[in-house]
Write a structure and sequence with these properties.
Elements (H helix, E strand, L loop, with lengths): L8 H22 L16 H5 L3 H14 L1 H9 L6 H30 L7 H8 L19 H15 L8 H22 L5 H8 L6 H19 L7 H22 L9 H22 L2 H7 L2 H8 L1 H17 L7 H33 L8
C-alpha cells in the first residue's frame, strides 16, 4: 500500500518565484541593464541577480519534472497503481492549451482590429496551434518570444510516460548517463550547425529538446528520490545544509557565467554543461523545499508567493505583452534604474491582475475538468 505524499506548499511558492524572476529579468534587460545599487549598502548591487533571471526557465523545467514524476515514483516504489497515460496527457493538455490559445486568440484579434502586433498566415497559424513553431523547416518564430519554452515543456510531457519505467533505482545511474550524453551531443552538434546564424536563432535551436533533456531527467530523479525517502520515512538530520549547499552552488555558477559573458554563446564549455550543473545544484533546494525546511517554508510557503505560484503560468505568459507597451510610454531620457523601478510599479500589479483573471476564468474551469489520476 502506498502512502499519500504530503502537500508541498514551498514548491508552489518556488514556482511563483521562478515566474517573478523571469519577469524581473525582462524588465531589467529592457530598462538598460542598470546596476541597481541597494541604498545604504555602499557597493552592493542587485544587477547580477536580475541578470540571472533567465535561469527562472531552468527552475521551471526542473521543478516541473520533480513534481510530475511523483505519481510514477509512487507506482515504482510504493505499490501504487500505474498512472494512466491517456489521462495524464489529457491533464497536461488542459494545463497548457486553454490559457495559451486564449492569449494567442486575443493577440491576433488586437493585431487585426487595432493594428498592434502582427498577424499570422495559414502555415504559421497551424504551427502555433500545435506548438511546432521551433520544429523542423520551415521554422516559424513564435508570435511571443516567451512561447519558445512551451514546445520544450510539452515535449517533456510526451516523453515522461516513456521514461518513467526507468526510474527504478537500479537504473538511476544509467538513465542519468544517457540523458547527459544525449544532451551534450545534441548541444554540441547544434552549436556547430548554427555557428553562422544570429545569436537569438542559435539560442532557440540549441535550447530545444533534446538539448534540455538533462534538466528534466535530473528533476525526475530528484522527485523519485524524494518519494523513495518518504516511503522509507527517511529524512536528513540537517536538511537546511542541503538548502545551503544548493544556494552556494547556484551562486558560484551564476558568478562564473556572468564572468564568461558573451563568450558563452560562442562555444564556451559552459554552453554544453551549464544547465546540467544548475539543475544538479537545484535538486538539493527542491528536496529541502519538499521537506519543508524552516528557512524555505518562511521564504517560499508564505501566502503571497504561493498565490503567485498558483497563477505563475499566467504571469509567465502575460508579463511581456504588458511590459513592452508600458516601456514604450516611458521617456528615453529616464535613468535606467528609474526606468526599471517605474516599469515594475506598473507591470507587476497589471501582470498579477491579468494572470489572476486568466487563472480564474480560463485555467481553473478547465483544470476542474481534468480527469482524476486512474490506473491503466
Amino acid at each position: 500500500m502506498s502512502e499519500r505524499l504530503p502537500e508541498l506548499p514551498a514548491l508552489t511558492g518556488l514556482r511563483g518565484f521562478a515566474a517573478l524572476w523571469v519577469l524581473l529579468f525582462h524588465a531589467w534587460a529592457l530598462s538598460g541593464a542598470p546596476a541597481l545599487a541597494i541604498p545604504g549598502t555602499g557597493s552592493v548591487q542587485l544587477g547580477w541577480f536580475m541578470n540571472l533571471g533567465w535561469a527562472g526557465v531552468d527552475l521551471f523545467f526542473c521543478l516541473s519534472a520533480f513534481l510530475l514524476v511523483l505519481p510514477f515514483a509512487q507506482w515504482r516504489y510504493g505499490g501504487a497503481p500505474r498512472p494512466d497515460t491517456g489521462r495524464y496527457l489529457l491533464r497536461r493538455v488542459l494545463r497548457i492549451y486553454p490559457a495559451y490559445i486564449a492569449q494567442l486568440t486575443l493577440l491576433l484579434l488586437v493585431a487585426a482590429v487595432f493594428g498592434y502586433g502582427q498577424t499570422l498566415d495559414g502555415k504559421a497559424l497551424v504551427a502555433h496551434m500545435f506548438l511546432w513553431f521551433n520544429l523542423g523547416e520551415p521554422r516559424f518564430d513564435p508570435l511571443l518570444g516567451v512561447w519558445f519554452t512551451l514546445p520544450i515543456e510539452f515535449g517533456f510531457y510526451l516523453l515522461l510516460p516513456l521514461i518513467a519505467p526507468l526510474i527504478d533505482r537500479r537504473y538511476w545511474p544509467w538513465l542519468l548517463i544517457a540523458a547527459l550524453a544525449v544532451t551534450l551531443v545534441t548541444r554540441y552538434l547544434l552549436h556547430l550547425a548554427y555557428l553562422g546564424v544570429s545569436e537569438p536563432m542559435r539560442v532557440i535551436m540549441i535550447e530545444r529538446l533534446p538539448g534540455r533533456l538533462d534538466q528534466f531527467v535530473i528533476g525526475m530523479l530528484g522527485g523519485a528520490a524524494f518519494v523513495a525517502a518518504s516511503l522509507a520515512q527517511w529524512r536528513p538530520r540537517q536538511p537546511a545544509l542541503w538548502l545551503f549547499a544548493g544556494l552556494v552552488g547556484i551562486a558560484l555558477l551564476g558568478a562564473v557565467i556572468l564572468r564568461v559573458g558573451d563568450a558563452y554563446w560562442r562555444g564556451h564549455p559552459l554552453l554544453f554543461v551549464w544547465h546540467t550543473l544548475f539543475s544538479v545544484c537545484l535538486v538539493p533546494i527542491l528536496l529541502a523545499s519538499a521537506w519543508g525546511v524552516a528557512p524555505v517554508a518562511a521564504l517560499l510557503a508564505n501566502r503571497p508567493l504561493r498565490y503567485l505560484g498558483e497563477i505563475s503560468f499566467g504571469v509567465y505568459l502575460w508579463h511581456m505583452p504588458i511590459l513592452v507597451p508600458i516601456l514604450a510610454h516611458l521617456p528615453d531620457s529616464m535613468d535606467p534604474a528609474a526606468r526599471f523601478w517605474s516599469l515594475l510599479a506598473f507591470v507587476v500589479p497589471a501582470t498579477v491582475m491579468v494572470a489572476h483573471l486568466s487563472h480564474r476564468f480560463i485555467e481553473q474551469p478547465f483544470l476542474r475538468r481534468k480527469p482524476p489520476h486512474r490506473t491503466g
